[in-house]
Amino acid sequence: MDQFTSPQIGLALRRLRKKHNLTQKDLANGICSQAEISKIESGTHSPTVDLLFALSRRLQVPITMFLNIDDHSDSIRLIDDELLTKFQNKDYNEIYIQSKDKLKFLSEHEELNSLYSYYLHLSSYRMGKIDYRTCIVELQRLSQKYINLYYSPKMLIRIKSAIATIYYEKNNYFHGLKVYEELLSLSFDSDELLVEKIRLLYNISKVLVAINKPQEALKHIDDGIYHSLRFKDMSLLGQLYYQQAYALEMLDSALENIQSAYTKAYMLFDILGMNEYKQVLLKYNKEYLILPVRN
Question: Is 0.85 surpassed by the pTM of this model?
């Protein structure tokens, strides 16, 4: 009998099983062995057409739910990219209206429901419609949903990072630090997740600097710089060098080390066209910059 070989089928099966609150044994009962379900979900075994059909019947979904996973993921990614761009541009009211409208027509168990909920909570908080405690509680509930239902580590990191950021903004550094430390205990086993790890390392270093722990901050900063250089990711490299220089200043380190870090930060900001960051350096740290003389 023909078999399906997409590893995404296993992820879809696990998500749908969790959605129906079924154990592997419950799902397998009368259809196949529990071991076979386990192998499919882990991606080490490919189901036959007949088996996939039987499982879709038990889960009360069309078999196409397993066959169009890539299209489904692409659709979610496009919506996420659109909303993220609006969020970065601080179009909070537009996000709020769009998310609230879409949530009227989405089932609670659909992944898009959770994505729109994420942006609804954050935009509501940024607009002052809810306080920061309410926002954190809602985001915590949402993170648990992603753990139990969707198995999406990247989205989990984003939600938890948003919680930590809110704590940081409210000067509740120790709660924020605890959230970041929990995230750093996750397994970052793909290039995409390693980029998220770099962002985490940068953010946790900011918290440690804020609570006057520059030596601990430097460990995370050095780790972030190492991963940035190794994977040729420049998105936060300038900020990491700036944070490194600032931590070294706090420790009264050698002048040449502070100068080197600030100069590297400035040059990266210049290359990437990050003029706002350049101006901050020129205003507050110009005496440390070693820049080439221009004719």
Answer: no
